[in-house]
Amino acid sequence: MKPLSEIFAQVKDESIGLVQDGEIFYLVMNTEQNLFDFDQIQRMHQCLDQIEKSTGPACLVTIGTKRFFSTGFDLEKWAINMSDAYTMILMMQQVFNRFLTLEIPTMSVYNGSAIAGGLLLSLTHDFRIMNENRTYVCLSEINLGITINAGFASIVKNSLTPQAAKLLTYGGRFNAQQCLKMGVIDNVYKDEKELMNQIQEFAKVYAPKGEARSSLKDLKTNLHKQTSRDLLQEGLSIGVVNKASSRQKL
Amino acid sequence: MLSFADIIAQAKEEDVALVQDKDIFYLVLNTEQNFLTYSLIDKVHRFLDQIENTPGAGCLVTIGTKKFFSTGFELSHWMKDFNEAYVQTLIAQKLFARILTFEIPTLSVFNGPAIAGGLLLGLAHDFRIMKEDKTYVCLSEINLGFSVPSGLSQLIKNQVPPKSSKNLIYGGRFNSQQSLKLDVVDQLFKDEAQMMTQIREFAKEYAPKGQHRSSLRDLKQNIHKNTYRDLLNEGLTLGIVQTKSGPKL
């Protein structure tokens, strides 16, 4: 099993990259905040395409390399143009749906804090493990006075108990022990050694379950049926028309 | 009150039987593996009809008598004939929908392992208790490369918390302690004596709640609205035409 430094080195200067180590696909998010914007969404799709082109047993480990796991959407880009915000949300919903129903087992590693959209990304994964030190999760939208749309809210509801969901909604910060107690995460790790052990254990048990790709995809699509449907359909009609100047096609 | 030995005796050689002990209706699964065959499902429907024809307080206790609670569908048949898979899935969905919204409180007793469709049968009940030793649950479909059909998967989604469903789908075996922790079961029993005590306590508290049959049925249909609807509607249209030789739905 390759050490993390080697995995991260393979991503070079890219903001995000896919690195394969045996049966483990690492989705490596390589910037300080790992913000979501149109380019990032595009790159995520490419990484998922690469996974879907491969065959055989495999699992996905999504991990950040620097201070944060991800802090979600680049709100500065939203502030410029309502149309861009609208489009970005819908495109992110499509990516989230792909992660949610991915044909191999998935695990998110909170190398650092997961905030807002970053937390949502990790909730589309099957499993989550968290750095014990100085790391927290926070669904911060309400603190900024903004809401969470129906598609994203469906992810929160789908992956957590009602108790945990309602605690998160109010924008509090929860550390590793609290997250473990709430069932937001499945395990905590102290240091890189423990992290690599947990990744190795995960791959050992779960990569083989990724062998029957189309069955696992179907199973997850069935299991998460309502959320998948919500991610693909919610928010399409808010009565806002895409301006001619808006670059992005949906 | 009947002992477990009495109940087994009354089931005689039948593969499935209904044995009444005052306000407890025992649905006795009396074979080694308790496969979900056409014959078993048909008989269970007739027993449920029988219960619906006897008004008053009551509760249902579904229990196996031999090694397994149930190991689900006979997959060897499915491999030979896709028609079987399609029809049996729909027939099982209909049965599970009926049990899920049944007009009296329901309890499954995992006397032995509950695997695949057998686990789904257990999940369609209100409550589950499990033998502590040498018993496990396992949603084994993915191990064989199968998915879980859309209707049936809603039992996994809606009857256990999210943390449990995501663990169950990966086909691992969960022993009694793990199943209790995952909220797949409500209680564990060490031996037959403890099992019968728990069944009687269940009946004492819950059989009276079965007095108002149509209200309880309606309540369960409302609480389990989405699961019930999905069990009845999902999987009907695959674009596959049933061959003449297949059974009627």
Automatic annotation (TrEMBL), chain A:
Q: Which Pfam families match?
A: ECH_1
Q: Which GO terms describe its molecular function?
A: delta(3)-delta(2)-enoyl-CoA isomerase activity
* UniProt-listed InterPro entries: ClpP/crotonase-like_dom_sf (IPR029045), Enoyl-CoA_hydra/iso (IPR001753)
Q: What processes in GO biological process is this protein linked to?
A: fatty acid beta-oxidation
Which CDD domains does this chain map to?
Answer: crotonase-like
This protein's GO cellular component annotations are: peroxisome
Q: What is the name of the protein in this document?
A: Enoyl-hydratase
| Annotated source species | Stylonychia lemnae
What is the primary gene name for this protein? Contig18093.g19233
From TrEMBL, chain B:
Xref: Gene3D superfamilies: 2-enoyl-CoA Hydratase, Chain A, domain 1
GO cellular component entries: peroxisome
- GO annotation, biological process: fatty acid beta-oxidation
Q: Which domain of life is it from?
A: Eukaryota
UniProt-listed SUPFAM superfamilies: ClpP/crotonase (SSF52096)
Fetch the InterPro entries from UniProt: ClpP/crotonase-like_dom_sf, Enoyl-CoA_hydra/iso
Organism expressing this protein natively: Stylonychia lemnae
PANTHER family according to UniProt: ENOYL-COA HYDRATASE-RELATED, ENOYL-COA HYDRATASE_ISOMERASE FAMILY PROTEIN
Q: What is this protein called?
A: Enoyl-hydratase isomerase
Keywords of this entry: Isomerase
Pfam families from the entry?
Answer: ECH_1
Q: Which GO terms describe its molecular function?
A: delta(3)-delta(2)-enoyl-CoA isomerase activity
